[in-house]
Amino acid sequence: MSSNVTISREEFASLARLHQGSVRAFVRSLGAHADSVDDIAQEAFLAAWKLIERFDPTKDFGAWVRGIARNILLNEKRRFGRRTRILSERLTEILSTNYDEADEDEILLHHANMVEALRECMTALAEKHIRLLRSRYGIGRRIGPLADALGTNANALSQMLMWIRAKLRVCIESKLSENMS
Amino acid sequence: MKYPETDTLVARVTDEETTAPEMVRLCELLLNNPRELKKVRWHLALSDRLSQEMDASRRASAFLESLETRFHAEDTRETFLNLLSQNIGKHPARRWRIFAPLATAAGLLLALGLWLNRTNQETQYLHGLIARVESVQGSVFSVQDIASRRRALKTGDEIREGMRIETGADGAVTLAWVAKATTVDVASNSQLETRNSKLTFLHQGSLSAAVAPQMSGQPFAVETPHALATVLGTRFEMVVRGDAGRPPLDARLPAVGSAKAGLPAIPFTRLDVDGGLVRFVRLTDQKSVDVAAGQFAVASDNVELKAYAQETKWIAGRILFEDDFENDGLARWMADILVTVHPKEGESLHRVNYALVESIAADRAPLVSIEKAAGRQPGSSALAIRIPPASDKHINIRPPSPGMNFTAIRAEFDLEIILPASIESHMLVSERSSRSLPVDPDDKKLALDMLRGRWARVRCDYFWTEDDQGEACLEDRRYVNDRLLYRYWHYPVDISFGQMIKSGSMLMDNYVQRELLSAQSFLNQDTPEPEAATVGKHVESPALFDNR
Questions:
Q1: Residue B5 touches chain A, beta carbons under 8 Å
Q2: Domain shared by A69 and A119, yes or no
């Protein structure tokens, strides 16, 4: 692998540690399969290391790696044997080409305090909603079996999860906006 | 309740439940509505953030550790490629043949790459002549990587460095290397990339190769997403299934059932060697094994990397567990079996985990008490697991302690085994592995069935749920002759049960001898005898009970 003179591997590791969460969430937000997110994000970091000499240290490292990740996702449809890493080529294309790093939503999505805000907002959720999130995102149960276990239908459960996420979003945006102001 | 169309689609895409028409519709809606587009991105991103927070396997530490491993793998691969280049450099004639065209091609590619504003440096492929098409069957295409142009291949076509070859479901192609008498047969549904004359990358599918003797230090190599095989002259076959880099499936494995019953496939590369010797390197951890003629190896997560004999007969048959009464008596105990099936072409690699729990609460008398079974001493408890075809493998047999009650359970699994395979098993004793909830007041029915010397059919259904405290657990429902008798809740914190089973079911046939059962006080003689149809079919004693 190529080495660089401006950023050591240790420094790179620190940057990766700092930005891994937002890069992974970003990859998912462009339509990657949940199971492939980490794979793609790691690929982006590997590519970033190879190209590290091109990185301008005065710029946002996270945004730079996200840009690489975006290119990887856009290249997915041109690559072989990896088509299953994205939900849909068309969806990824639409999501990838219709966003702006400077957009307020985008800034909030990758805000450094995102995790803290999320954790705070989760404490305000009802216990049954926390349990549901744990089943879905902690254990990784799919909607169908989870709905069966809870005695509901998949569509209603999906909507319930969306409602919880929407509630979290409002809370997170509020906290981050306070933070920014 | 009726939900707005967009919300329904956004929810479904976030949960990865969309059908193809729904995806088309969602894309249409998103194109005309930037606000909804932001909503999709937020829900997707937030679902990932939640997963990062709640799923231990996705914590930052796990991600960074995996990233570090890939860095090391990249380092090693680069070292290997450098070594190849250096060795090639020692032979002027070969260097000219390969590197002269490379310079031109690299320049063209660089210009093209700039034009396309590519950032991926890995696409700087070199264009030396490597091989020619010797024969073609069905649909076979060569693909120019950057422009994604496909061209049907025909006999005599040149195969150059950086070229990708794709075979359809009916396709197959034989490539003859120009430098040496090496031939590579690419099977159907395969994707191959000729990186240079010494290195071929098999993305998907399978190939078999007859490799001419190579010069020392200049091995012929085939790389896959999971492994690197270096060859000095041999005949071998490689099979690749699944994508590289997927997370381990340990927490998502299915439990009991058929190995072919729609279980998720695990990515792997299998190498079979028919002649010579191949060095097989697993890329995730750089472990290697030398695979000789008549052997095979598999590179995949959590599968032991070793050379297996191709004619290995799988350890099929019966596995006998005995309780560790010397330490815990009729305590809760658990036995589990890990079946790893090493596939051949066209098959899928599955790991099937079975876990069996027999729990007798401290405040309950054991269900049954008999004097002897299978010729063993009183006080033993036994579980036999039968996996056809019959070929016995006994493990972990301990001498029983005298004076203990006896429970005998025979479990027979309906399992399709793909040969060859390997099996691992062990037994654990845990005081906290589960707790049971009798749900049927007539819970003496099992004992009654057993009293009458019948086999009682026990079905165990496993699925993830939450207990009455809201804690995630694996529920194990026991049905005896189709009647729900117990619910067991198993907790992941105990002996990693949750990592072994996701959901599933199994059938067991239980049998105990009648003599000592009659001494049990809880028997209800008035309980009607079960109908014949609900009684297990195994009226004959298996070998375990041969001296009944």
A1: no
A2: no
Taking the C-alpha atoms of residue B133 and residue B178, their distance in angstroms, rounded to an integer, is 10
Answer yes or no: do A172 and A94 share one domain: no
Prior bond of B492 cis (ω within 30°): no
| Better pLDDT: B241 or B366 | B241
- Which regions of B367-406 does DSSP assign to beta strands (E)? 381-387, 393-394
Range of the domain at A136: 114-180
Task: Please indicate, yes or no, whether residues A89 and A19 belong to a single structural domain of this protein.
Answer: yes
Q: Do A145 and B52 touch (CB under 8 A)?
A: no
Which of B1, B22, B71 to substitute to test the interface with A, most A CBs within 10 Å?
Answer: B71
Q: Does residue A45 sit within a domain?
A: yes
Residue-wise pLDDT for B499-521, tens only, equals 333 333 333 333 322 222 221 21
Asked whether the predicted pLDDT for residue B24 surpasses 80, the reply is yes
Q: Looking at beta carbons, which residues of chain B come within 8 Å of A134?
A: 54, 472
Whether residue A124 is found in the same domain as residue A148: yes
Residues B318/B324/B329/B334 CA torsion (nearest 10 deg): -60
Tell whether A18 and A82 lie within a shared domain: yes
Q: List the structure tokens of B520.
A: 């049990």
**Which residues of chain A are within 8 Å of residue B49 when distances are taken between CB atoms?**
21, 25, 114-115, 118
CB contact under 8 A, B247 and A35: yes
Q: Do A42 and B66 touch (CB under 8 A)?
A: yes
B321 or B216, higher pLDDT: B216
DSSP character string of chain A:
----SSS-HHHHHHHHHHHHHHHHHHHHHTTB-GGGHHHHHHHHHHHHHHTGGG--TTS-HHHHHHHHHHHHHHHGGGSSS-GGGBS-HHHHHHHHHS--TTSHHHHHHT-TTHHHHHHHHHHTS-HHHHHHHIIIIIS---HHHHHHHHTS-HHHHHHHHHHHHHHHHHHHHHHHHHHH-
Q: Which two tokens stand for residue A101?
A: 């790093």
pLDDT at A79: 52
Greatest C-alpha distance within chain B: 95
Per-residue pLDDT tens digits for B244-300: 332 222 222 222 222 222 333 456 787 888 777 788 888 777 788 888 877 778 787
- Per-residue pLDDT reduced to its tens digit, B91-141: 322 222 222 222 333 333 333 333 333 333 333 333 478 888 989 998 898
In terms of domains, do A146 and A65 share one? Answer: no
User: Which of A99, A129, A146 marks a domain boundary?
Assistant: A99
Q: Quick one: which of B458, B448, B498 has its CA closest to B478?
A: B458
User: Which CATH number goes with the domain that contains A160?
Assistant: 1.10.10
Measured on CA atoms in the order B257, B259, B262, B265, is the torsion positive or negative?
Answer: positive
Q: Is B143 on the interface with A (CB under 8 A)?
A: yes
- Please state the domain count of chain A: 2
- Determine the average pLDDT of the residues in B288-316: 67
Nearest to B164 by CA among B143, B195, B137, B138: B143
Across the interface, whether the CB atoms of B48 and A37 are under 8 A apart is answered: yes
**Residue at A75 is within a domain:** yes
Q: How many CB atoms lie within 10 A of CB B144?
A: 13
**ipTM of predicted complex:** 0.94
End-to-end CA distance of chain A: 42
Q: How far apart are the C-alpha atoms of B230 and B290, rounded to whole Å?
A: 10
Residue where a domain terminates, one of A46, A66, A99 = A99
Give the model's confidence band at B301: pLDDT under 50 very low, under 70 low, under 90 confident, else very high: low
Structural domains in chain B plus CATH codes? 5-54 (no CATH), 72-309 (2.60.120.1440), 317-545 (no CATH)
Please tell me which residue of chain A has the smallest CA distance to B75.
Answer: A1
The reply to whether A108 falls in a domain is no
